[in-house]
Amino acid sequence: MSHEPAPHSFVAESRELLREMEDALLTLEQSPRDSEAVNAVFRAMHTIKGSAGVFGFEVIVEFAHVMESVTDEIRAGRVEVDDVLVALLLTCGDHVSVLVDCLESQDPNARLEAARPDGADLLRQLSCYCVQTPEGSPAEPQAGPEATVDDLDSRGDRVACDGWHVSVRFGADVLRNGMDPLSFVRYLSTVGEVTAIVPMFDAMPEAQAMDPQACYVGLELQLRLQDPASRQDIEEAFEYVRDDSVVRVLAPHAPIADYIDLIRNLPESPDRLGSCLVACGALTPDELAQGLLLAPGRIPEQPAPDAAPNETSDSDTPAIPAVANAPKPDHKSTNGRYMRVHSRKLDELIDLVGELVIASAGVSLCARRATDEDLREAAAAMSRLVEEVRDGALALRMVPIGETFNRFNRVVHDLGRDLGKDVDLVISGADTELDKSMVEKLSDPLMHLVRNALDHGIEAPSERLLQGKAKRGKLQLNAFHETGSIVVEVADDGAGLDRDRILSRALHTGLVQPEQSLSDAEVFQLIMEPGFTTAQAVTNVSGRGIGMDVVRRNIESLRGSVTIESAPGQGTIVALRLPLTLAIIDGFLVGLGGSSFVVPLEMVVECLELGAQDRARIHQGGYVNLRGEVLPLLRLREVFDTRGEPAKRENVVVVQYAGQQAGLVVDALLGEFQTVIKPLGKLFERLAGVSGSTILGTGEVALILDVQALVERAVRSEATRTASAGAHRVLERL
Amino acid sequence: MAINITSLANARTRVALNGAFTVYEAVEAKRDLLQALADSAELEIDVTGLDEVDTAGLQLLFLLRREALHTAKLVRFAGISQALDEVLNRYGLGAHFEQPAQAVS
Questions:
Q1: B59 → closest Cβ in A197, A201, A206
Q2: B-chain residues within 8 Å CB-CB of A197?
Q3: Is the dihedral angle over the CA atoms B48, B51, B53, B59 positive or is it negative?
Q4: Spatial contact of A621 and A714, defined as CB atoms under 8 Å apart
């Protein structure tokens, strides 16, 4: 097993549990008596321990076990929760998370072994909390629940055997899913001593029909437990195969009738099973005979063949699922509403939908040219459906940002303590959805911003009091939609950016020339230049001058942008603007000379015809008067150096980005168009004014306009014209 | 997994299994092993070269023996490897494979 990569489901589930545990611990810090939170911590550790055991990750089992014990002490009320314990448990959670990360490496077991010593110190600290329960403590109430509970109802004679009996029929896909029944046997032998085991290959069909990758194995085994453990511990070993396997656990001294039920419900013949159970030592021959005699009375009129299908072909597990499903613990049911799907499958689906969109554009085009009315109708209906399919497929990739935000509870908590600052984290818009791949790439930039805000933004409590502010600082994470983008804001109510210091620093390093006059926003943009820092002290949190430029690079690689607003003494807001999706958008098609271009529809505000007067006046760019407002214009013909004479009538597409409007002058307006974004090759990555390409229904290629860059360019050239200020190359980003 | 098939006298065939014998190799292994059995009256399987065996591999060895029983042929296992031995012991089948095929229940 050591060669196989750890099943992804285990890694993913563990991370989820660790996050839940972290949240619960933070709750506990605020309200130490929250039993719900204690249970959440316990559950997380218990499940991770159980699952890790199945896969044979000893190091994780070992560590999680101690954490679980400590949490159990809390549950039992023997240990009080205080800040020290919460901090310890948080650190321990981090360690488990490191261990889980190891599983994604080439050789997980070696990595785990290497990480083991790091946990030793934590284990020592943890063990201080569990000394109160000496070894033989009978306090464990669930130690032998089966025996006590079962004693109450006298269900006839009990077997003499004092071991647990485990009966498993593995599902056909167990091997294909990367698990091996062997690993369960290995795990059980770490929980207790496997005293007898009989594998059953009876379900294997004859040679031709046998699928070599299917699992046909069943197990009957006897287990003697070292620690007092419950049925649940054993059943949990099979957590990952429980959906398609049939697992039954019988307690020591179980009623004979239970064994008879077992025999009746298993697919093999009663004779075969009976002899196996005797061979295992679960039943004595006498008990078996007695039980089989008794049985007809207990299960009236049940003919034997029903319970004993023929041993080869009729091996399908669905014949007996009712019993199997009964003992599932309820926490599974909450997971039932979700299905884990490999993201690769989703990506493939979305690629296909993209192709479908292009193909359907082709069909629509043909239909429009044809005279056949029915064909047009059919094509229109199909386009509508394709649009819905597209939206549905893209929605599959959308996840709420809340999960990413919640992670910062911990970051703010820890950093605040390290820096001696008192900070409240306020989250809003947690259910704003964005593309999963974007969420992943967002977490690093957000981390930088949050650290910056805590370190440089929010002042120390004493200073805040001096300034007449509340002692507790406030950090806000907001997410919301805005014309075709998603905005994620990190806002603090700290000192704000020091405009003068940034400027003098920029002058000093030559980023800015003395004669340039810059707006506030432009000055704040400077802090995102590589290597720029104004921090007087380089703390270990931030201030090394890396960070903001990385943030900007990361966001720009997602076709997004970063803007900074700040007011001295009141705080700073850093807003990250991101496109709604990375794959398919609604576009607006415009014509220019012989070629077509796409403007993301969500950024289009309106379209107007360029009047003859304006046309004569503007040459390269300029502006028009749009209902009393100045609208800077950009002639795309000039930008892209288009050949040929302009059309007789030119049109203006008014676009908006980050609150600024600009008009793009084009030849023709061609209408809406579903646009599948195809990235430009490496060669054209830095191409000015263009962010991607797409394929039209005719098979021609159209370029997607980079509205953000064009708007900035239009606004700037307008500004330089009017203010006749020198060109400031610093912000030249085209 | 490498399967080396050598024909011996009297319709006997010797099959040497080397390397890994797991679910990843199972499809090919099933085909080759059943073919080898079909082509001969007696199969001698040398398992000493197996360095990784899982339940899928074990299943196939069982299948082969059962198939031999059904077709009145003989399958014998020669030697044992540590990897196979470990699997057999886990399943409580320690002594099972050293005897001729009839021992399968």
A1: A201
A2: 90-92
A3: negative
A4: yes
In this complex, which of A198, A210, A217 lies closest to B55 when CB atoms are compared?
Answer: A217
Query: What digits encode the pLDDT tens for the residues A409-462?
Result: 888 888 888 888 888 899 998 888 888 878 888 888 888 888 888 888 888 888
The H or E element that residue A398 is part of is strand A398-400
Q: Does the pLDDT at position A681 exceed 90?
A: no
Helix or strand (DSSP H, E) at A294: helix A285-298
Can you say how many angstroms the Cα of residue A107 is from the centroid of all Cα atoms in its chain? 24
Closest by Cβ to A176, choosing from B23, B87, B91: B23
Chain A: residues touching B (Cβ < 8 Å):
1, 3, 175-176, 180-182, 185-186, 196-199, 201, 204, 206-207, 210, 212-213, 215-217
The closest alpha carbon to A526, from A555, A557, A497, A567, belongs to A497
pLDDT at A535: 55
Which among B54, B63, B91 has CB closest to A210? B63
Does residue A200 carry a pLDDT above 80?
yes
- Give the Cα separation of A391 and A110 in Å (integer): 45
Token match 């316990």: residue? A42
Vertex B31, ends A310 and A241: CA angle to 5°?
Answer: 55
Phi, psi of A272 (to 5 degrees): -60, -45
Joined tokens for residue A85: 């314990």
- Type of residue at A351: D
Looking at residue A432, its pLDDT comes to 87
Residue A175 to residue B55, Cβ atoms within 8 A? yes
From A201's Cα to the closest Cα of chain B, the distance in A is 7
The verdict on a CB contact (< 8 Å) between B93 and A181 is no
- List residues in chain B touching A: CB distance below 8 A: 23, 26-27, 29-30, 34, 52, 54-56, 59-60, 62-63, 66-67, 70, 87, 90-93
Smallest CA–CA distance, residue B53 to chain A, in Å, is 10
Percent of chain A with pLDDT over 90: 4
Give A216-270 pLDDT, tens digit per residue.
989 888 888 766 666 777 777 787 777 778 888 888 888 888 888 888 888 888 8
Mean pLDDT, to the nearest integer, of A134-144?
39
Tell me the sheet residues that pair with A400.
A433
Q: Residue A175: which of B29, B56, B91 has the nearest Cβ?
A: B56
Distance from CA of B22 to the nearest CA of A (A): 9
A37 three-state secondary structure: helix
By the 8 A CB rule, do A664 and A710 touch?
A: yes
Distance of alpha carbon A73 from alpha carbon A60, whole angstroms: 20
Q: Strand A561-567 to strand A473-482: parallel, antiparallel, or no bridges (unpaired)?
A: unpaired
Reference A542, options A609, A454, A628; nearest CA is: A454
Query: How far apart (Å, rounded) are the C-alpha atoms in residues A135 and A156?
Result: 34
Distance CA A713, CA A710 (A): 5
Q: With DSSP H G I counted as helix, E B as strand and the rest as coil, what are the percentages for chain B, rounded to 5? A: 40, 30, 25
Kindly list the residues from chain A whose CB atom is less than 8 angstroms away from the CB atom of residue B59.
201, 204, 212, 215-217
Quick check: pTM over 0.80? no
A347 exposure class (CB count in 10 Å sphere: 0-12, 13-18, 19+): middle
Angle at which helix A83-102 crosses helix A108-130, to 10 degrees, equals 160
Please tell me the distance from the alpha carbon of residue A385 to that of residue A2, in angstroms, as a whole number: 48
Residue B78 has pLDDT above 50, yes or no: yes
Contact A197 B91 (CB under 8 A): yes
| Backbone CA torsion sign across A616, A617, A619, A622 | negative
User: Which residue, among A178, A241, A165, A168, has the nearest Cα to A203 in the 3D structure?
Assistant: A168
Name the nearest CA neighbour of A676 among A386, A426, A369, A358.
A358
How far is CA B91 from each of CA A46, A242, A271, A410, B94, rounded to the nearest angstrom? 28, 20, 21, 46, 8
Rg for chain B, CA atoms, rounded: 12
